[in-house]
Design a protein that fits this description.
By secondary structure, the chain is α/β, with parallel strands linked by helices. The chain has 6 helices and 8 strands, in the order βββαβαβααααβββ. β2 and β3 form a beta hairpin.
Length: 211
Amino acid sequence: MSTITMGVDLAKNLFSVCAVDASGHVQRWQDLGREAFALWLAQVPAGTVVAMEACSGAHHWARRCMEYGLQPRLMAAQFVTPFRKNRTAKNDRNDAEAIATAARQGNMRFVPVKSVEQQARLAWHRVREGYKTEGLEISNRLRGLLAEFGIVMAQGDRALRIALADLVGSGGVRTGESSNGYGRSLDTGSRPTGSPAQLGGPEVQLTIRVS
């Protein structure tokens, strides 16, 4: 097993790599592009510890490390910060060295590497939660706009849907564009909460008649 620990500061296009030996001394730094970094991983001796912050893309690169027989170590960013030598002069190389140093600590807490299936499931939940948040924001915005015309309704998404249906049915709110110039249109994008195949539902256009 290699006694060298590789600290990698991940990025979209340029990766900074710092090699630290068993005594904690920096052996070398490297700046690699995305494709060059992928090729570099294939050349690192098997068993080498490759440490990274658990940020965007980290689990992908950790899985690549495992394919080459390397030992990926993912850490939360807040656990790496105390090992940065100069916190006022933050740069990629300092970050890479801090990552390598942090990974050598015996009491460091590492993040388990997620499989592709685990990440896909997590991504779906994040998208779903995002739509729920957006739906609440749209509902609150619509309530505020309707309140300007004296239309107030009970709390809850179901109450809002029922009230809007009643307004449309009673003529208080008309669908489509105003033909007499006395209307104002409100466009609200419908955000479904079903499966990915169900996303992208129809838009709803409401026209409020004002005198």
